[in-house]
C-alpha cells in the first residue's frame, strides 16, 4: 500500500490507506450578527470615590470633577462609604464569543448546571427559548466533538513519540518574573529538543487559588540525555493536607524554581490520564497545545503487505493493524523498522 498514514493507539500501529475522492472544502459557517453587551465596570460595594473615578474614565460618564463632588453631596454619603451605584459600559460582541466566555467560566460544573448557567447568560440575545436552546445544543455538541478530537490527536502523538514523563514547572519570584519564566522555560525546552532530542507537548495554566502561572507537559527524554539530576523530595501538601513525595530536576530548579517529574509507567499514571490532564487545562483556560518541532500525529510511509496483521474491523477496509516492527519507507527507500531513530528521519504529517 502506497503513502499510508500510520499512527499508534498505545498498543498497536494502525495504517490508514489512502482513499480516492475528496470530501470537498470545509464549509465555514456564515458570520454572526454583532450584538450589544452591557457589563458592569465595578461591583456594587465599591467606595464612592472609586466608583466616581470609574465613571469619569468611562466615555458615557465623562464629567468635571466639580460635578462629581456635587453629586456626592446630593447623595449625602461619606466619600468612602459603600453605595450601590454601578458604572456600566456597552461593547460589541457576538453570540459565539459570549458562549465561549461563559463556557470557560462554568467549566467544571455539572453538565446540567453548566447548561442552565450558559442559557441564563445568553437568553437576552435570543427572541425565543426554542431559538436559544437550538443554538446552545449546537454549540455544546461542537465543544464535545472538539474535545474528543483534541484528545484523540494528543493520545496518538504521545503514543507515537513515546512520551514517558509528566512534568509540572512553576517559578520562584526570587529567581525570575512571570514573563521571564514564560519565555525562558520554552527556550530551555526548545534547546533541549534540538540538542538532546527531547520532545514535549504541554500547555500553560494558572492555579485556582494563587493564579500563579505554571506549565504542564508530557515529555520524551532519550536514554542518557537527562539534563540535571533527579532528586526525591518530601514536603507538606496544603490541598491534600499530608506529606507528599515527588521527583524534582535540579536543572529546572536552579533556573526557575519548583518542578516535578512523574514517570508514565502505565500503572499509577497512564498516558491516557496524562493527556486528560492536558486537555482539562486547555478547556479550563482556553489555552493551546505547545509542542516541540516535529511532533506530528502520523507517519507517512509505504506499507509492505508482509507487515499487515489484519483489518482493524471486518467491515472496514481503510484501517489495518501492523506488526510492532513494521518497516518505514521514505520516497521508496527503506529506513528500517520503526524506532525513535527512524522516526527522526521519516516523513511526519498531521
Structure in words:
With 350 residues, the protein is α+β, with helices and mostly antiparallel strands. Among the domains are: 39-89, no CATH class; 162-291, Alpha-Beta Plaits. The protein is 35% helix and 27% strand. It has nine helices and 17 strands. The protein has helices at residues 48-57, 65-75, 95-105, 111-122, 129-160, 178-196, 250-255, 271-285, 340-345; strands at 4-8, 13-16, 35-40, 88-93, 165-169, 199-206, 213-220, 230-237, 242-249, 259-263, 290-291, 298-301, 308-313, 316-322, 327-330, 333-337, 347-349. The strands form five sheets. Strands 13-14-2-1-12-17 form a six-stranded antiparallel sheet. A five-stranded antiparallel sheet has the order 10-5-7-6-11, with helices on both faces. α4 packs across α5 (129-160) and α5 crosses α8 (271-285). The longest helix has 32 residues, at 129-160. The radius of gyration is 27 Å and the shape is globular. The two termini are 19 Å apart. The relative contact order is 0.14.
| Distance, first to last CA | 19 Å
Which overall shape is indicated by the principal axes computed on the Cα atoms? globular
Strand ordering within the main sheet: 13-14-2-1-12-17
What's the total helix number?
9
| Most strands sheet | 6 strands, antiparallel
Task: Summarize this structure as a short list of keywords or feature phrases.
350 residues, alpha+beta, Alpha-Beta Plaits, 6-stranded antiparallel β-sheet, 5-stranded antiparallel β-sheet, 27% strand, globular
